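Allow me, if you will, to draw on your knowledge of protein folds for a short while. I have a record of one protein: its chain in single-letter code and its fold written as discrete structure tokens. Kindly check, if you would, that the fold set down in the tokens agrees with what the sequence suggests. Thank you for your consideration; the sequence and its tokens are set out here:
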Amino acid sequence: MNTTDPQTQQIGAFRQNLPSIQSSVIAAGIVGSALLLWLTAASQGTAKSVLFLLGLALGVTLFHSRFGFTSAWRQLVSVGQGRALQAHTVMLGLAVVLFAIVFEIGSGWFSTSPDGYYAPITLALFIGAALFGIGMQLGGSCASGTLFATGSGNLAVVITLVGFITGSGLGVAGFDFWTTGSGFQKFADPVSFRAEFGLWGGVALSLAILAAIAVAAELIIRRRRPPTLESVPSTVGIARIARGSWPIWVGAIGLAVLNALVLLTTGRPWGVTSAFRLWASKIMNNVGIDVASWSFWNERPGLDASLLADNTSVANFGIILGALIASAAAGAFSFYKKVPGRTVAAGLIGGALMGYGATFAAGCNIGAYFSGIASGSLHGYLWAVAALVGTYIGLKLRPLFALPVPK
């Protein structure tokens, strides 16, 4: 009589059929990483070298945990499945505490004066975040998801990345409209819980808000009774670290710790999309467009500097390469050969909406949502509300591009 439970049998079957480790891809990723690390160290110094290593770790963590921002909000809005959102509250709550410790210390590893991300409450914030939410559901990924999926060889998301960079360039071109022109309306100056309630009073308020969100997600789950999210790991034991999927809570903790380490290293939290604006601007500059005369670059250095001088670009390169190495170790690196035309259109449009919206919405799901909330800034929570509205709209648009909607 076989007394082995079905899940154990399933894991055993998966372990026997694990994809082969893609050694050549791993070798290419390691060589590329070593070369980029050497170039960064030689030209930019220790701090950016550490940041690149943190980017590698972020790429590995994002790939193995498949930590979803796009999918979490899609599941919540479409079927009321809030487990992934509850994982967000774990990540955010831990990050709030870790950030506060760094703020309390008052200095980083490289004599930086750490500070968070804060932004005023404006009409542009709400519109930009809503556009970002629509774009996530059409493009199939968020800012961080676009990077790690690109690194793991997802051709459909590479197309989204192209749209993302294009939209970022459009956002730079139209920056004045949303910041000082007709599209600008300020409702309040930046609201920092740390400034309003003290460091640990702000932490307490943030944790109370996040706890309320977790409870609300639980109530939604019990009311709507969505399909259970079950993930059977492809392997178990020590091999799961490099070959299998990680529990979502491991990803939540890992991302919170790594974001705090980025804060310690650079003096500012993790962000993603400012690099896309720089990349787009450099491309336009190289084809003869006088980007330097645009107001966006009036007070921002870096347009003429090396990409390795830009913190966000260095971290992004690390994420892509880290995901490449991790996916190859899992035997999962693969460019999909065929991408349907409507998926291509959805990726380009969705990416463009994310890039454009993030330009004037104080950032993306990382810079505005994750790092904003971790910093104790009100705008991070309001960004999330607007992005959820955009998620609802994006879900309504997905069938136009033959994209599935959870039911």
